[in-house]
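**Backbone description:**
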Amino acid sequence: MKLKKHFLMAAILLITGVSHAQQVNENTNYDQGFRLGFGLNAGAVTGDYFNFALGGDARLQYDLSQKTSLTLTTGYTHLFGKDEVKDLGYIPAKAGFKAFVWGDRFYVLGEAGAGFAVTNNYNETTFLWSPGIGYANSFIDLSLRYEGMNNFNADQIAFRVAYGFKL
């Protein structure tokens, strides 16, 4: 008889705990969704061939949770050549992961993809990788990133200012 009482008490506690946990999860469920941002980039270029970079981009972001997101970024970046080197314009196509690490404003971001040269007979496509850090609120996104470009003989450290909104 005592065994049945203990079993019944354990079952009641388990059911009560599970139902309470479900209520907490329902109340704190994050409204997942998409965000779209448009940014302007300016950067210093490393290497011997280019002086600086200017560009613009569009970033689609899918929020997995309040702290993590998946990103897709494209746009146009123009590298201004030194001396007799011709300028290079390319279109980046990158996918990435964004994680807020300090409160809900400061984040780290990692992206990888391809850069497609589109100017001055550059017929190269390069692998791009770009880690970065940033600050974001409901509308403004400020970030600093390194962008490695394997086949363009240049890398850049760029500052990005963007306006974003929920879709």
The chain has one helix and eight strands. The mean pLDDT is 87.
